[in-house]
Specification:
It contains 13 helices and twelve strands. By secondary structure, the chain is α/β, with parallel strands linked by helices. The protein is globular. The protein binds adenosine-5'-triphosphate (ATP), iron/sulfur cluster and magnesium ion.
Length: 348
Amino acid sequence: MTAAQKTPAAGLVPKVPVISARGIDMVFLKKQPGRLDPWLRKFGLPVAEPLGVHALDGVDIDVMKGEVVGLVGESGCGKSTLGRVIAGILDPTAGTFRFQGRAYDEMPPQERYRARVAVQMIFQDPFASLNPRKRVFEIIGEAPLVHGLVSKDKLEDYVDEMMLKCGIDPAYKQRFPHQFSGGQRQRIGIARALAVKPQFLVCDESVAALDVSIQAQIINLFMDLRRDFDLTYLFISHDLGVVEHIADRVVIMYLGRVVETAPTEALFDTPRHPYTQALLANMPRISTGKQAFGQIIGEIPSPLHPPTGCHFHPRCPFATERCRAERPMLRPTGPNSQAACHLIEETP
Ligand SMILES: Nc1ncnc2c1ncn2[C@@H]1O[C@H](COP(=O)(O)OP(=O)(O)OP(=O)(O)O)[C@@H](O)[C@H]1O
Ligand code: SF4
Ligand SMILES: [Mg+2]
């Protein structure tokens, strides 16, 4: 990828948040309240309390127009949940959410609907998200027709254009998903998302299931589309090498919380948060070619019973009494950078 692909307009990314979230909480109840609970209580019998997984715990995130933000963290830390909340697939339990500066709650239904369509999600397994009984023409053309983005007589040309933009031969538009390879299926999934003219793509491990050479092609496609359609990305990935390569900025999550964010170069050069330092220290470089992070000492705590204070304290070599008692909040650590750790001094 060229520098121009990574940082358009001579590296100047305009400071307009497309997505702005504050205090986002997402709790999944593992045990729903039972219908007999009130009766059990009335007769003094034991009642199991509803148990919740706090998948997102007070997440603040801004994504500026034109940015590619990499979202990284160990399995189960809440990356997909955050992606789904941002894409409007899940309603958060609490928190405020703005699209281009407008709060969703305050939008009239039609505007809210348009805002939801403007954010599209690309999943890891395109096969699972493509209807096996529909032909590619219908898969790509259905939504823009329903949303009134294109008239029926222009649909054929429109689908051809989307397919060409995504590197699929329009001659294949009457085929079914199973007649394509994994990489081509992912291109169909991208063309389907692109067809509703989104402004923001949430890519959730979108290249993880592909061979390395195909991964590079799909990543290049994402970056070309970014330039051609003025797109903004949240790119969720286990692969730090991919994130380092394509992201302008990286957000690190741990057990439902954002613990650090910084421009990519700064984060990889001088990670500030002990968790980020551990992730990067475990990132095998050139020797193995494998770029995913390795195991950090200590187990990931259960999200059903997260540690008190700083969630990372049981695994952190620098933990103090304060860390065990008090949650560290995100504070500025440099230009466009923040970290949540009691040991890190705030940079004005
Ligand atoms: N629909 C759901 N119902 C109940 N719990 C859920 C649901 N979706 C996610 N969770 C829980 O929320 C937490 C965060 O899950 P999430 O899938 O967002 O993590 P992730 O960071 O994307 O992990 P991975 O890297 O494995 O994809 C996990 O503990 C998970 O078990
Ligand atoms: S707040 Fe304390 S436990 Fe948490 S990362 Fe910082 S030093 Fe470690
Ligand atoms: Mg996930």
